[in-house]
Design a protein that fits this description.
Shape: globular
Largest sheet: 3 strands, parallel
Order of helices and strands: EHHEEEHEHEEHEEE
Radius of gyration: 17 Å
Strand order of the largest sheet: 2-1-5
Helix content: 10-25%
Distance between the termini: 34 Å
Length: 208
Amino acid sequence: MPMVLDLHGSGSTPLQQISGSNIAATADKHGFAVVAPQAGIPFIAGKSHGFAWNVPGVPLMNGRPVPSGAPNDVQFIRDTIATMSKALCADQKRVYVTGFSGGARMPRRSAANCPMRSRDRPDVRAAPAEQLQAGPARVVLSFHGTSDGTNPYNGSKQLYWSYSVAAAAQRWATADHCGKGVTQQVVNGVMSTTYNGCQGGQQVCCTR
């Protein structure tokens, strides 16, 4: 059966993520397995005592650097996929990763389900944005609220979230060697910028 990894946000836990996402009921209805791994860095976000992911090249949500000796969560996600795929007899061609907030950053930075490769780690489909290079095509879908005060849609001065969603889409397009973006109105109040002509037939689209 298909397998989905559901990654919790910073300061949260796997049980909180499963409960908040209601993914268990969805899995029962549609017939897929759910794996909810736990990040390795103890982290407090407001009143929430949980854990944070070691996202390569990104400081923690409080602006502090990742603690020395923190677990390699990129490798952890890869190992989790390999181990649980075998344990659950998962379909290797239908392994997906989803997440919330900090947990949503891990899929594209890890070996899980990202179309980019690192210059220094060609075996790992992960890299800071400035190191992204085109690789085998994968589907990446990201939702970001325009009223998000923690990770503002238009970016912020915080090191963990320094550029806008539109800039992130532009970086994906650059990494995939796409053509110039074309912006058009989809419906009233909704604009979409699409980058076509990408290497390998990929397409990058940012809708707001």
